[in-house]
From TrEMBL:
This is Annexin. Coiled coil: none annotated. Belongs to the annexin family. One of its GO terms (cellular component) is plasma membrane.
Length: 353
């Protein structure tokens, strides 16, 4: 089938069903021409005729922005909320895990991240669950502009400040103050999106702890600024230069000389992310697949949905390099029988359009 016929097929059917192409793209889902009104009509028909697979193929074949446009068209045409209809549909079919995944598909990325922060906070500081670092991971792996968007969305959804919830739900004062300070930095003083400041590399060598427990962010302010005030591109360059000049790994110095606690965990995660963000996401995905408690799978949903339009193919390559099989294999292995519908939806995100 040539390209023009394939495009025509997608427009007519409003179902994007193409597999990965050798196009050099890092994402699995890209924006292709589609009609939101036609998509809304098709979704209504799929709901009424209980065609779950067709419904999922349509939604996972659209970008986040296109899904938001479909929601508006659906509301205008049927005077109903698409998200509510989808939730009710999967609730009635007792596919609760799939229902939660589809609900997330209909949120903006900022909303997915804001909601995951709250859920992770509740889990992480509850005696009923083991530690969950999702809330921290989201906050520390975003730049200043991205974090502000998430913080604003958190306020819009929950009608309270993220900092207030951190203060109420976290147990250690050092962790509370650390994350609050990152939020307070805002766009102007927060982490830049990119760029390396060559004259700010060597001057921070002494900030890396070499003995004792010299990592408290309010005492070792240079280490704090290094970890939170520069772009990840800059931090990666710092890590490389430090190893070349000092013969030591920054991550080992932090691990050996920072005691325990949330600040240490944050620094280790920041270093891992700066060094290789794709392996960072791949590791979190693998942990999620192998610990299928509901709160861990929330992180799986978050990564697959939010990275699908950015770099999910690169995450998949890192996953395969580290675990000797790709993400699709893990999905099939873990959800072939249990949560099969959920597994199908994850596979569709990986296949993309």
């Amino acid at each position: 089938m040539n390209v023009s016929l394939l495009l025509a097929f997608c427009l007519i059917s409003s179902l994007i069903c193409c597999s990965w192409a050798e196009d050099g793209h890092d994402f699995t889902i890209q924006e292709k021409p589609c009609d939101p009104a036609a998509d809304a009509e098709n979704l209504k028909n799929f709901l009424q005729s209980q065609k779950s697979k067709d419904l999922l193929q349509l939604l996972t074949g659209r970008t986040n922005k296109q899904r938001q446009d479909i929601k508006k068209s659906y509301k205008a045409k049927f005077n109903q909320k698409l998200s509510s209809n989808l939730v009710e549909y999967f609730q009635n079919r007792t596919e609760m895990r799939l229902m939660m995944f589809v609900a997330r598909l209909m949120y903006t990325n900022e909303s997915i991240l804001a909601r995951n922060i709250l859920f992770s906070l509740d889990v992480a500081h509850s005696d009923a669950f083991k530690k969950d670092w999702g809330y921290m991971s989201i906050i520390i792996t975003t730049n200043g502009a991205q974090l502000k968007a998430i913080v604003d969305e958190y306020q819009r959804i929950f009608k309270r400040a993220l900092k207030d919830d951190l203060n109420a739900k976290m147990r250690k004062e050092s962790g509370k103050k650390f994350l609050a300070s990152i939020i307070d930095a805002g766009v102007e003083n927060g982490r830049p999106a990119n760029g390396v400041q060559a004259d700010q590399i060597e001057k921070y060598y002494d900030a890396v702890p070499t003995k004792g427990n010299n990592c408290a962010f309010d005492k070792n302010k240079d280490l704090y600024h290094l970890m939170t005030g520069f772009s990840f591109e800059h931090l990666k360059k710092f890590i490389t230069n430090y190893k070349n000049d000092k013969g030591k790994e920054v991550i080992d110095q932090i691990d050996d000389h920072c005691g325990d606690g949330e600040v240490k965990e944050a620094y280790l995660r920041i270093i891992r992310f700066a060094t290789d963000p794709y392996t960072y996401y791949a590791t979190d995905l693998h942990d999620g697949f192998n610990d299928d408690k509901e709160h861990v799978l929330d992180g799986v949903d978050r990564i697959l949905i939010t990275r699908s339009e950015i770099d999910l193919r690169n995450v998949n390559k890192a996953y395969e390099a580290k675990f000797d099989h790709d993400i699709k294999h893990s999905i099939k292995y873990h959800y072939k029988e249990k949560l099969a519908g959920y597994g199908d939806a994850l596979s569709m995100i990986m296949k993309g359009n």
